[in-house]
Structures are given as structure tokens and as C-alpha cells.
Amino acid sequence: MGSATPVDDETTLIGQLRAGDESAYEQVVRTYGGRLLAVTRRIVGSDEDARDIVQDAFLNAFKSLDRFEGNSKLSTWLHRIAVNAALMKLRTRKRKPEQSIETLLPAFLDDGHHEERFQSWDEPVDKAMERAETREMVRAKIDELPDSYRTVLVLRDIEGLDTEETAKMLGLSVNATKIRLHRARQVLRTLLAPHMGSPAAPGKDVS
Amino acid sequence: MKCRELAEFLMDYVSGELPEENRSHFEFHLSRCRNCREYLVQYEGCVKAGRMACGDMSDEMPADVPEDLVKAVLAARKIEPTS
Asked: Using one digit for the tens of pLDDT, what is the confidence trace for A74-126?
């Protein structure tokens, strides 16, 4: 039986972990491993690195169980350890200089108007996202974002951390975090737009 | 307010953090600019799309944690016991 099962009683589980109960460790890995793999893969962009990070994150968490005070949920605590490890991996990895995003941000005319006339997307996002291929395309476009923009978008918009916590994890000021998130969303919009609309749709009122 | 400023204020507007004075200018511009209304819809759509493509309920989430990962964690833990 390999599927993740929800943990109803975290206090009991933590007690079992502290008592060295092997089945409790296995339950934790099976329950939370999938989510940790997904978020770390999104940050580092590699299945292999994500697997190593998640393995180390579990081991580090298990070693420091006595420091888990129960102020947050076990899942949140594990999540934070894994995300920090993924961010550390990104920092230490030898990176090529990031590609400039300037051409993917909205451009303006001298009079302050947008240069581009935005075409309506074909259908509401909720509807488009019902299709597996659209969800896959969105993930691929998020993966295309330069590291520094992808990480802030993942932490804020996908993982749902607040600005302060995101800023702390990334070692940025709150203001820099907000600016970076805004740009990441704008770039993602530019990358998604060609796949969400139909600029050549006949008879469409674009005035 | 021009489209350029509206684009700068977009995130604060969406999160409800735009101060009242700026918000009224923002909404006045929005009421008269179809292009900015469309941009706002798409900006919000991107946030939603990211969440729906990668969030907790997404199809990307493995239903089962790879067996080799489970085994590797449990084996490594035995080498380095926690307590």
C-alpha cells in the first residue's frame, strides 16, 4: 500500500516518531513525500536534484525532531525544510547569467499607453485549466521563468506563503520581493498569452 | 493615471493593498480603458492558472511516493539514527 494517507492525529504520529517507531517514519515519507517532490522540483527544475533534496530534507527533519515544537503543523515544518534546501541548492549551483526579462514585460508608448492591444483569451482560465494539456503548458511556462522570478512566484502564488515569509526565505527585502513577484506574473502572462487566446479569430471585436 | 502607472499598481490593486486615493484613479482609468481591463483579467488569470497547474490538487502531484525514495530515506535513517 503506497498511497498517501492523511494524518489525522499529528500529536500521536510525532510521539511515535520520537519513540523511533519505524512505521511512523515510513508513514511520514509516504504522506508528505509527493508534495515535497513537486515543490522542490519546481524550484530546482530537475527530478534528480528534487529527489536528493527531499531525501536529505526528511533525514534532517528526523534528526532535529526534538526541535519541532508543534507551533506549526508537521507538514508545514517539513515543507519549510525542503524549500530552504531547494533554495540553497539553487544558490550553490553554478548558474549562467539569467536571461533578461525586459522584452517580456509590457511595453509602453511615450504617451503612457500600452504598445500592445491585448486580445481576449478564448475562455475563462478555470475552463481552460480543465484540460491536462493546458495545465502541462502552464507548468512548462513557469519552468521557463528565470530562477529568481520562478522562485518568488512558486513561493507566493503556488505555495501561498505571505510576502514577509517569502522575503525571508529568499533573503530579499519585502519591497524587492513584491517587485519581483509582480514582474514574474507579468512575464508569465506574456508567455501564456499566445496559448490562451486566438488573435486570428474571425469576427472578434478587438476595438 | 496612464496605462503605465496602472500596470505598476496592478499587484497592490489585486491584493487589496492599493491606498484609497490611488484606487479611485486606478478604477477610473480602468472604467475607460478596455486594454487595461483585459490586461487585469489576464494578470489575475495567470495567478489562478499557476495555482491550478501546480497546486496541491494538480495532476503533477505523484499519487505514490517513489518506492526507492521511501526505501532510501528509511535505510539512511538507520545508519544515522535520530536519537
From this structure: 888 999 999 999 999 998 886 677 889 999 999 999 999 999 999 999 899 99
Q: Say what the pLDDT of residue B58 is.
A: 63
Q: Identify whether A81 is part of a domain.
A: yes
- Tell me the CATH number at A190: 1.10.10.10
Beta-carbon separation of A3 and B63 below 8 A? yes
Q: State how many domains chain A has.
A: 2
Residue B33: DSSP 8-state: -
Task: Give the model's pLDDT for residue A200.
Answer: 40
Which residue range(s) make up the domain with A65? Answer: 10-92
- Tell me the chain A residues in contact with residue B42 when contact means C-beta distances shorter than 8 Å: 118, 121, 189, 192-193, 196
Q: Does A113 touch chain B (CB under 8 A)?
A: yes
Q: How far apart are CA B1 and CA A205, in angstroms?
A: 25
